[in-house]
Amino acid sequence: MHCSRCETELDDAFRFCPWCAAPQRTKIVEHFRGHPLLEQEPTGLRVSRYLRGTRHVRLSIWDADRAVAAVALEEREARRLVVFLTESETAHPRPTRIERARTRVEMLAGRR
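The structure corresponding to this sequence follows.
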């Protein structure tokens, strides 16, 4: 294997070039488990971020040890997904216990 930046010969175990510090990984993978109370089978999500060539993010649905569905997102769509996941909580924050109690009292009093 050779460094993607300085072309120095490297061992396959290197994640970064020891001479120029360039990352040597071609993709980064993270696994996410399905919700234990909502999933019927031991399913999960594998997210792979491809760093070379046609840069993209691949989302794969897994059932045990095999992928059952996958979709590749362009970088722009992946960023849009991040915004959706992070802003949805702030755009629609969960009501506090006090707000939930107030709503319940108002409903019981016939004000709602």
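Residues 7 and 30 are 28 Å apart (CA to CA).
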